[in-house]
Design a protein that fits this description.
By secondary structure, the protein is mostly helical. It has 9 helices and 2 strands. It has 2 domains: 2-64; 72-191, Lysozyme (Orthogonal Bundle). It is 67% helix and 3% strand. A hairpin with a 4-residue loop joins strand 1 (91-93) and strand 2 (98-100). Helix 2 runs antiparallel to helix 3 (35-64) and helix 5 crosses helix 7 (134-154). It holds the Pfam family Destabilase.
Length: 192
């Protein structure tokens, strides 16, 4: 999908540079000598241009949707399910890494959200999710994370509140994971 492609932009850019260089070399060495070579190169050039155009559209679409507009009740319920909405909970050891703050946000979650944020989110992860402004800062992190992974997880369709809750719990592909269904059930009960 466009969203999966957009995450590999650097690798695709390197491939594009290699192909461009090779095309330039081949253009001067082969095209004028052999009509078949020209025909093959024309096909390759068309393919490269098509891939470039698609990649450009994907990258533009990747950030064009903006931050999701979610009700406060959604954040209240995530907070309730994660920590009984305790703003002073600090960090809890998960089986793999620390989850911190009232929304139990991991450092990698904060990093992913911060990479696409238009402005700095809280300076650093720990300050953002456990500091004096942790509720507001954590919401900004979540919104940017949802912007980054919402349509990626859903395959391009508009994400629902359920999708966002499951992404919060299960990561970039959380809306597809069976293990996030029970998490959504808790959030859904809270939402009423």
């Amino acid at each position: 999908t466009c969203f999966a492609t957009a995450y590999k932009l650097d690798a695709l850019h390197q491939i594009w540079q290699t192909i461009s260089t090779n095309l330039t070399v081949h253009r001067f060495q082969s095209v004028q000598k052999d009509e078949v070579a020209y025909s093959k190169m024309s096909c390759l050039v068309r393919k490269v241009l098509l891939v470039s155009a698609l990649l450009s559209v994907c990258v533009v679409n990747r950030f064009a949707f903006g931050l999701p507009n979610l009700p406060d009740k959604f954040f209240d319920c995530i907070c309730e399910v994660e920590s009984n909405c305790n703003p002073r909970i600090g960090c809890v050891n998960d089986p793999v890494t620390l989850s911190c703050g009232p929304y139990q946000i991991k450092e990698v979650y904060w990093q992913d959200a911060s990479e696409i944020a238009k402005e700095s989110i809280g300076g650093n992860w720990m300050n953002c999710v456990t500091g004096a402004d942790n509720m507001s800062c954590s919401k900004k992190v979540m919104l940017n994370y949802f912007q980054r992974y919402g349509r990626y997880c859903t395959g391009g369709r508009e994400p629902t509140i359920e999708d966002y809750a499951r992404i919060h719990n299960g990561g970039p592909q959380g809306c597809r994971l069976q293990r996030t269904v029970s998490y959504w059930a808790k959030v859904s009960r809270c939402l009423g």
